[in-house]
Amino acid sequence: MREWWIHVGLICIPLVAVYLHIPPPQLSPALQKWHSAGEVFHFRGKKVFYRDSYGALGSSDVVILLHGFPTSSYDWNKIWEPLIQRFHRVIALDFLGFGFSDKPRPHRYSIFEQASVVEALVAHLGLSNQRVNLISHDYGDTVALELLYRSDQNRTGHLTFNSLCLSNGGLFPETHYPRLLQTLLKDSTILAPILTRLTNYVIFQKGIGEVFGPYTQPTDAEFWDMWTGLRYNDGNLVLDSILQYINQRLQHRDRWVGALTSTFVPLHMIYGPLDPVNPHPQFIRLYQQLVQRSTITVLDEHISHYPQLEDPTGFLNAYFNFIHSF
């Protein structure tokens, strides 16, 4: 019996070693097209991917899109063209550690650094004196709140907000329920390096699928594009470092929730109510209670954590109604 297990071990060890060094998947034609349409700029020696599309003639309006965890700027692909038809410039970036941007390791990823990345991109594009509209999702919501704090405090290099539209972000630690794998990765210094290497497409697909509604699941191709963006530049190996943002939300709650509740910038929340991460009705009730200056759109009951992908038409209608209201 002992010899049998030895043989199994000798077979498994090289197989696991090979698995852990599987190269990232090739970009699909759709993802390659997105990548080819983008550019990079350098932030503190790191490459940051972004897209900057010119659109509506006769408009000077600029909108900047901030994506969520663990995906990328490609999250906005379904609403990109309609936004170009409305805005003079539509801009999106991949945060450090995400998508086509550099994914340094070891590295102390933080919401503060990502906010500085956005400010640096705005300066790079010559928009420092331009009033900008922000649309954010999930992780991007917290980056947006740090940018809002800096703007309201008149910090050097801050953005000048015209408006802010949030969507399904864990703004309040008390109503945020991260997935089990996220909790293990952010809190376990022993397990995290193992789990990041063992994370595979099947695990990823199951985890992402759980935060989409049952009738709005991504296609196989869309799941694969999300996974490809994560694996690009070995992004799976920095998940545990990036996930410290959950702890940062708790540590800096007063700063970020305070900015949200005290600002006079026009605010809107687009919310998919089937979200298991920010569940209904706890999340939206607390938002209504604390952020009384904000308007809110609650989408259909089957829309979950990724409203811009699950219901792009509903998302756009809500956003355009908001942007035309002031």
From TrEMBL:
Main location per the UniProt record: endoplasmic reticulum
Biological-process GO terms, alphabetical: acylglycerol catabolic process
AB hydrolase-1 domain location: 62-312
One GO molecular-function entry: monoacylglycerol lipase activity
Bilayer-spanning residue ranges: 5-22
Keywords: Endoplasmic reticulum, Hydrolase, Membrane, Transmembrane, Transmembrane helix
GO CC list: endoplasmic reticulum membrane
Topology of the protein relative to the lipid bilayer: Multi-pass membrane protein
Compartments where located: Endoplasmic reticulum membrane
Domain of life: Eukaryota
Family to which this protein belongs: Belongs to the AB hydrolase superfamily.
Identification of the protein by name: AB hydrolase-1 domain-containing protein
The species this protein was found in: Sphaeramia orbicularis
